[in-house]
Design brief:
This protein is an alpha+beta fold and 219 residues long. It contains six helices and eight strands. The chain is globular and about 35 Å long. The two termini are 21 Å apart. Residues 1-32 form the signal peptide.
């Protein structure tokens, strides 16, 4: 499998690019546990994948409408993902090597404060999903110069965790943040939370990852 170049789509980089466009007039959500549901068969289309994404987050942040972000969140094709890179043609080749099929992105938050993002991407094979999740995690660890934790406590096997202890104005992070990347069957799941403390961000990531993996078909 072709290793990713530096332009490989980074969930963190995309999150930061979207932050200035998050609007404050979003619909409210219900505070409580992240919403889970019985797992469905493996999706055969982006629309079926969308139905498997979590709909609420424990912090009660309002969900951001896909169209309120630039570029829009929601359905993602390989062409969309490649478009985030400085070299889209090279990125398309990398995605083909991973066996990328399609993905879906969802955000919660308002303005530069607390924020949660969930990216779920589907691949042709388990190996492709695992390699993609691993390489995204390594990419962001290098970006922040932070230590990546493989299979950390409170997350399932196949997950990686990265924690930023404080705000990083240079990158646009408004507070402490936690990031998790997990491979689950033919899916790659990436969850990011920015909160008022490391503990709050990490707890949010743990809860959202658990709920999201529960919604996916068994690995």
């Amino acid at each position: 499998m072709t290793p990713p170049g530096p332009a490989l789509r980074s969930g963190t980089a995309l999150l930061l690019a979207l932050l200035p466009a998050v609007l404050t007039g979003c619909s409210s959500t219900v505070e409580g546990a992240a919403t889970a549901a019985p797992a469905d068969p493996t999706p055969s289309s982006p629309a079926e994948l969308e139905r498997l994404l979590v709909t609420d987050v424990p912090s009660g942040l309002a969900r951001v409408a896909d169209a309120d972000l630039t570029p829009p969140a929601g359905e993602k094709s390989a062409e969309d993902v490649a478009g985030y890179a400085d070299d889209p043609d090279r990125e398309r080749e990398v995605l083909e090597d991973y066996g990328y099929r399609y993905g879906w992105e969802r955000f919660w938050g308002a303005g530069p404060g607390p924020l949660v993002s969930v990216f779920v991407d589907q691949f042709v094979t388990r190996a492709g999903a695992g390699a993609y999740a691993r390489d995204l995690a390594a990419n962001d660890a290098e970006l922040y110069g932070a230590v990546l934790r493989d299979e950390p406590p409170h997350l399932p096997g196949g997950c990686r965790l990265l924690v930023l202890d404080e705000a990083d104005p240079g990158s646009g992070m408004s507070g402490p943040a936690a990031f998790a990347w997990c491979a689950h069957g033919v899916f790659s799941v990436a969850v990011t939370a920015v909160a008022g403390s490391v503990e709050a961000a990490t707890d949010e990531v743990h809860a959202v990852v658990a709920a999201q993996l529960e919604r996916l078909p068994p690995s």
